[in-house]
Write the structure tokens for this entry.
Amino acid sequence: MKVIPSSQLPEYGSFVISRFDGLQKDAVSRLIGWIRDQDPLVKDMAIVDASKVIDEFHLILAINRALHADSRGNLKTTNIYSEVLYMLSPTKNIRDAFKNFGISESTTSAIVIQVAKGEEELEQAKAKLGDLDLGKDTYSDGFDNGSTNIDAIKKASEDERSVKLG
């Protein structure tokens, strides 16, 4: 788990990022069910397919953009957490963003993002992570995502990807 202070928007406190690798199919199915049923356990968190995140900068940029949109009252989605998924996407299509960056039955690694506005919420965020029962949190000081599937993120045809510039 990594706690990053929201220095540009101190009213949001910090955001908490956790990563779970080697997820079993039953854990992913349970998560998908909770998301679909809008279970309170996953209500205040973004759950992202880790194989679609390029690097830590990509993730933190999306989180900051979502917080800024919320602070201006300019969210394109229903809340900060769905806005993070939208901000990760290179397209302006919300449905595609959810499909590409949200978890699916084939997800084996997930990133969980929560906003904690103070110490009490930070402790609640840590407790929620334990309640998810997804295994060991592997997110620490670094972000190594050698498994990013860039082609799954891009919306380009095979012909467009084969064009050589210069």
